[in-house]
Amino acid sequence: MDNNNSNNTPEKKSFLRLPDIYRIDYSKPVPFRQQFAFMATVLVISCLLFSIVYIYQTFRSGTSQVAGAEASSSAESKDKKESKPDKKKENSSESSKSSKKETSGSSGKKLLTKVSSSGKDILGETQTVSKTDSDIGFGSLVLVNKDYSSRYDGENIKLIFEEKSDSYVLSDNTVGVAGDIITNINTMLDDFQSLYGESDIMIACGYRSYDTQVALFNDEMDDESDKWVAPPGYSEHQTGFAFDLDLDLADGGKAGINYEGEGNYSWINENCGKYGFIIRYPKGKEDITGYGFEPWHFRYVGAPHSEYIADKGIAFEEYIDVLHDHGPDNALVMDDENGTSWCVYYVAADEQSDSTDVIVPVNYSYEISGDNVSGFIVTVKLS
C-alpha cells in the first residue's frame, strides 16, 4: 500500500529549471556540446551587457552636451548684455562699440585698444604744466563744428607748393595748411601714386580765412547750403588742419568736386588714418557732424587718434566724448599699426581758475591739445 502511494506521487519540479544541456554531471567528462553551449551563452550575455552600457553612456553624453550648449548660450547672452556700452557715455552706441564694429576697411591690422585702470602707474613720474583758458581752443584735436567756433585764423599756415612732392597738384599756389601736416600729406599721396600710378590728385583748398568763409557762405546761400557750407567762424578750414581733395581731369569733369573716394581712390579714404588724417564727415554720421557725407574732406588729428577713429568707425565728435571719460587715472592705452604704444587722457579745465594744471609724464614725450570744448587732451608716446 505504501509502495503504491510512493510510486504514484508526481515528481516535484524546480521553479527555475535549467535546460538539460546546462546540467552537468561532474562525475563524467563534460561533452564538447555542453562546453560550446556555455561559451556561446557567456559571449551573448557579454555582448548584451556591453550594448546596454554603450547605450547608457551615449544617452548621458548627449544630455550633457545639450545642457552644456544651453548653459553656454545662456552665458553668451549674459555676457552680451553685460558688455553693452552705456549709450549716454558713448553718444552713438552702434558706431563706437568698440570692439566691435571696427570698420577700418583695408587699413590693415586693428588697433589693440584697452582701458587702463592705473593710468598714473603707466605714466610713472609726473609733473604738471599750466594751461590757460585760451589754450583750450588750440591744438590738433580742437573740435570745430556748428556748435564750437574756430579760434584759429591763420596761425602757422604754410603754402603747400613750397614743400609739396610731385605726386599731386594744387588748384593754385595760394593753397596753405598748418605747416606741420604737409609732410603727412606728401607721404600719403606719394604712397598712393606708387601703388596705383595715378597723377591727377589735386588739393583744391586748405586754409580759409574768416573773411573768405563769409564770401563763400554768402555765395552758396540756399536751402541746401547748411548741409555743406559752414557758417563763418565755424569752418574747420579756418584751423588749417583741413583740406579738400579733387581730381585734375583733362576733360574738366563734372561741375563741382569730382573726387568721390571710389575705385583706386578709395585707398586714400581707407588708409588716411595711418597718416594722421580722418574723413571728417563720414557717411551715416550726418546727425552727429551736422553735415552731409564728404569723402573729399580730410582733417588732421594725428596719431594715434586717426587710427582709433577709423578703427572704431566713429565721428570726431564721438571720439571727443570717448576721451572725456578717460582721465589720468583710467587713461586710454593703445598700440598703433607700427607697434608704438600710446597713452591718451583728458583733463577738464579748472572752472574756478583762469588756468589749469595738466598732469604730464616726466620721462615720456607728450603733446597737449585743447579740445575747444571743456579741457585738454594729453597724448603720451610710451614707446
Task: Give the key terms.
single chain; 383 residues; alpha+beta; Phosphorylase Kinase, domain 1; Muramoyl-pentapeptide Carboxypeptidase, domain 2; 3 domains; 5-stranded antiparallel sheet; 14 strands; elongated
| Beta-strand share of residues | 15-25%
The succession of helices and strands, N to C, reads HHHHEHEEEEHEHEHEHEHHEEEEE
Number of E-type strands: 14
Q: What would you say the CATH architecture of the largest domain is?
A: 2-Layer Sandwich
The largest pleated sheet is described as: 5 strands, antiparallel
Query: Within the largest sheet, what's the order of strands?
Result: 1-10-11-14-13
Pick out the low-confidence regions: 64-73, 75-110
**pLDDT average, as an integer?**
82
- Our count of domains comes out at 3
Number of helices: 11
Please describe the topology of this protein.
Blueprint: H1 2-8, H2 32-82, H3 87-90, H4 93-96, E1 114-115, H5 119-123, E2 126-132, E3 157-159, E4 169-170, E5 176-178, H6 182-196, E6 201-205, H7 210-219, E7 242-247, H8 266-271, E8 277-281, H9 286-289, E9 294-300, H10 305-312, H11 316-323, E10 332-335, E11 341-348, E12 355-361, E13 365-370, E14 375-381
Parallel strand pairs: 4-6
Antiparallel strand pairs: 1-10, 2-12, 3-5, 6-7, 7-9, 8-9, 10-11, 11-14, 13-14
